[in-house]
Amino acid sequence: MMADYGLNLDPVLPFSIVFIVALAVLIFFIYLEFRRKQRLLPLRIVAISLVLVSLFGIVFQPSYSVEQNQEPIILLTKDYPKSKVDSIVQANAGLRVIRAKDASSYPGSLILKSWYELSHENIFYVVGQGIPAYALDILHKEFQFIPAEMSLGITKLIIPKDIYSNERRQITGTFNSAEKTKLTLLGPGGAIDSARLDRGVSSFSLSFTPKQAGNFIYSLVFESASKSPSSARIPIEVLPEKPLRVLFLQKFPSAEVRFLKNFLSEKHHQIAVRYQISKSNFIYEFSNLPWERIDNFRSDLLKSFDLLFIDQKSYDELSALEKTDLKKSVSDGLGVIFLLHDVKEKALGEFLPVKSKRSANDTVHVRLASSHLKVLPILPIELDHDPSIVPITKNKNRILSGYYCSGRGKMAFQFIEETFRMGMEGNFDDYSSLWTPLIARAARTKESNFKLKLLTPFPIYNNEPLDIAAISSGPHPSVYAESVIVPLKENALVDDYWTGRSWAGKSGWHQLNLKQDSTQLHYFVSDTSEWKALRVSNQINANQLHRNTKITKSKKIIRQIPVPKLIFYFIFLFSSAFLWFAPKI
Q1: Average of per-residue pLDDT across 185-197
Q2: Are 419 and 495 found together in one domain?
Q3: What range does the domain containing 279 cover?
Q4: Which residues, in sequence order, are bridge partners of residue 492?
Q5: Which of 39, 45, 273, 511 could staple 248 via S-S, CB 3.0–4.6 A?
Q6: What does the alpha-carbon distance between residue 118 and residue 223 come to, in Å, rounded to a whole number?
Q7: Do 234 and 276 belong to one domain?
Q8: Integer Cα distance of 282 and 247 in angstroms
Q9: What's the pLDDT score for residue 474?
């Protein structure tokens, strides 16, 4: 150990202010001592100086730097495998052992009082369930990670986002079990779907179809032969349908468009339909909109609509200028759904940048909102796999409806035909499940200067950090959690990207709000008794990202050793005592 005797100061008050005040006080007291004309004047001046030095030390808290060789440390966390720790300790002489508070005892180990101590330690090994994600930010280094054995229960859970009513969605994940287990998904109306899993690690998928918008709590029930049933809550946010302005361009009236128009108008969407009966004559229908002529297919007209339905023949009738305006409008945010009736239609190749092939099958089995398999007629076409296509309705690997992004807008397609028959048969939920999600995702996205995102993965527990990200187009975003403002800082490398940290409240639904607009972000806080295995799995995965296989046996660090305040207190006491006794000597 080598010491550097230069002092470092950690002042409570600005140095210049304290120095000027101390010098003035010293001069004043020396002046008083000269006026007293008493004995031991030099010693009294020294004593006064020591009193001021002691006060200086108390206020400025001086410390000195010491260079030390810091040996690597092995950190034991909950459920660490003792046999592996024994092997590591035996193979690395001089390895210090510390353990988290909730980890079981180990011979010669010291307890880590707080995760904040990690910033001062040379952590090389981490064994067990790992360090919480928020504490990894404190460590600022990589380490060798030896994970604990996989916990029993849900180890992975994917809850879908952007869920709309009457849309069939799936909750997927993996389950680790010591025996055969039955999973049952419960919704507001009771049991919805179930899956039977074998012993070991198994994947599962549970389907559900919400009936209305709002924040709901579903439950996942676990049943096995040796244990009584247990459950955990799953938060499901169902988004409301946005009121849209929709334009239909059709060469001839069709039952498909007429039924779809009525379906949308009943949902209070604003609908305009144009049928062409001759080269320059059109028939118009409007729902929830005032009548107006739509003869010229111009860009300023398209800006007023969120979604366009168009068939091949209507597209062919457009002039070159109108087609250019259409493509520009899509790039600016307009959504377009092509109503195709033949695999040879030009729009398929012009607007879908994906290779396709003719299929021998013109029908398909699809499970919709009613959970019953239905046989539906489809265009005999199959799209090649392409990551740019976002599927909405699928049958195994065959995409039946979907979209791809084009600039800020979207180009969508629906290969299922004669969907109006489901509505005429009274299967409105199935009909809605085919069209509602496609329309909602294809329509023009509302432009916003702000976007909120939750960085903390599910599950979130009470009194734990809640990491938030906000994207702003320029102004400083003001985010509130339960009416308390969340301090944000902008990313040093990415402009307009802000991050902050709040703290989760009690169990249940909560929301974050932006002061600048009506943007809200809902999140759910779980009980600590729920999702224990999932929480451990998330933590292990976070620690794996900091994993490093290189070892540094020791490293030199500079520690700041504070000068004990007790020394300054004793100097003050003895100097003051001398000044008190000096006149009596």
Answers
A1: 92
A2: no
A3: 245-442
A4: none
A5: 273
A6: 41
A7: no
A8: 14
A9: 72
